[in-house]
Amino acid sequence: MRGLGRGVGLAAAGVAAAAVVHAGPAVTTVERLRLRLTPRLAGVGTGGHVALTFDDGPVAASTPAFLDALAAHGWLATFFMLGEEVRRAPGLAAEVAAAGHEVAVHGDDHGSLLRRDPLATMDGLRRARNTIAEATGAVPGWFRPPYGVLTGAALLAAARLDLRPVLWTAWGRDWRAVATPESIVTDLLAGRVDGGTLLLHDFAASGSWRATLAALPLLADRLAARDLTAGPLADHRIARTS
Question: N or C: which end of the chain has fewer CB within 10 A?
Answer without folding.
Answer: N
